[in-house]
Amino acid sequence: MTSSINPFLVSTDWLFDHLEDDDVSIVDGSWYLPAMGRDGRAEYDIAHIPGAVFFDIDAVVQENSPLPHTLATADEFARHVGKLGIKSSDTIVVYDGAGLFSAPRVWWNFRQMGAAKAVILDGGLPKWVEDRLPVESGSAPIYPTLYDHRGESAAVVSFDAMTAHVNAGDVQIVDARPAGRFTGEEPEPRPGMRSGHMPGAKSLPASKLIKDGRLRSLPGLQSEFETAGVNISQPVVTTCGSGVTAATLALALESLNAPSVRIYDGSWSEWGGREDTPIETY
Question: Per DSSP, what are the bridge partners of residue 27?
Fold first, then answer.
């Protein structure tokens, strides 16, 4: 089932062979930054993998959170994805239209909500199209079901916990944002937000883990973490701008069997958006 290079990836050939399986759910998790000039939902309506449903990461969120993409509560998540016809016991195959950008965040959401068989399509929609496999337009038929999971995730780091970690220096904090934003040399895309990074954080831009829209090989991932000074055998908390590309780091770490991987869900939208948080620039 899984790709030979990564336990969390499936190939386009595998998915094509299992398109009609009752226990396989296909999820288009496309989402883009405003500067990318793309609309995930609009592109889904034009062309998507047959049977795929659209997962909107701006909609499946914690309803009262002032921050973007905050992981929904278990009840909220179950309500949303049950309406999409997805069961927690399904093999859930997530992809996006960039190859690998927002799919890891959707994959991570499902993983935190009890979907033990959530995987990512290697190469996403671009690889599917490159392989001349079928697409369809419009909306796929949806048969609502019960998404049976009520537990809360232990892999999410709150602001208070992140503050404690920064003060204690007891975990490795790895930042997925581009290097210029990490150093403070480039502005944040959100107006009025400070740039820089949390004290003690290490920089590993998510883009370094991706080549031609696909996650790098396991040795390649290992090399990037070593170059960034990250010891994957020790606890790691990943962060980024709003919690999306932090999930790419989490995907890579879990692919390498890192034993302790969590995401600071508020990420820089929370830390950099406050005036009472310490920031380093260099």
Answer: 53, 94
Residues 115, 90 contacting (CB under 8 angstroms)? yes
Residue 45 appears among annotated catalytic residues: no
Catalytic residue among 93, 106, 221, 240: 240
Phi, psi of 273 (to 5 degrees): -85, -5
pLDDT digit string, tens, across residues 76-103: 999 999 999 999 999 999 999 999 999 9
The residue behind tokens 């090399």 is 223
Side-chain-side CA neighbours of residue 197 (13 Å): 25
Model-wide pTM > 0.85: yes
Opening angle at CA 126, ends 60 and 124, nearest 5: 45
User: What structural domains does the chain harbor?
Assistant: 2-130 (3.40.250.10), 156-271 (3.40.250.10)
On whether the CB atoms of residues 156 and 112 are closer than 8 A, the answer is yes
Q: Are strands 6-10 and 2-3 parallel, antiparallel or unpaired?
A: antiparallel
What pLDDT, on a 0 to 100 scale, did the predictor assign at position 6?
93
